[in-house]
């Protein structure tokens, strides 16, 4: 579900093996968040982060309990205090304990000679900036179209306009027309505009 150039960065570069956590809850008809949304005519909402709770937190907590993992580590930086919850004894925040901010992490990665990993997010996340939307449309048109289809499907199923825009102003089809009309942006280096912002889902 990642929208940002994951093919150019692999965690095995630094000896990390990925693990896919599958849903074993009573909701058995949702192989992916995208599939669940298409089946039920839904889209993720920034104001009500049901997708984060049901497709990240619930699954990770179930995995932790099932495998007897007492504590999980979350990579939240010291510059993200609103995301830290010290009242949960099953979670620790090593970056906060070390006083590391996001830029400290990036500096460390660069010093190790490893490519900086892209920010991960669902390609249909409702929170990205306009620049990130533009980047997705430009570099991954197939993912952009899949996200736009989720909006159209939700609109059709609910008989009202659905949009991933938190303000409810633009649909992805609207933005596509805008991007196509812009043409080449002289003097604009898109990679420099890629901000490493916190994931709004809270994880």
Gist of the model:
By secondary structure, the chain is mostly helical.
The SSE string, one letter per element, is HHEEHHHHH
Strand order of the largest sheet: 1-2
- Give me the Rg, rounded: 18 Å
Measured by DSSP, the beta-strand proportion falls in under 5%
Mean pLDDT: 79
Helix content: 25-40%
How far is the N terminus from the C terminus?
15 Å
The major β-sheet equals:
2 strands, parallel
Shape: globular
Structural class: mainly alpha
Number of discrete helical segments? 7
Parts with pLDDT < 50 across at least 5 consecutive residues: 1-7, 186-200
Instruction: Work out the number of β strands.
Output: 2
Keywords:
single chain, 203 residues, mainly alpha, two-stranded parallel ribbon, 39% helix
Secondary structure elements and pairings:
Blueprint: H1 33-40, H2 50-66, E1 72-73, E2 91-92, H3 94-98, H4 102-111, H5 130-139, H6 141-158, H7 172-182
Parallel strand pairs: 1-2
Helix pairs in contact: 1-6, 5-6
What does it look like?
This protein is mainly α and 203 residues long. It has seven helices and two strands, in the order ααββααααα. It has helices spanning 33-40, 50-66, 94-98, 102-111, 130-139, 141-158, 172-182; strands at residues 72-73, 91-92. A two-stranded parallel sheet has the order 1-2. Helix 1 (33-40) runs parallel beside helix 6. The two termini are 15 Å apart.
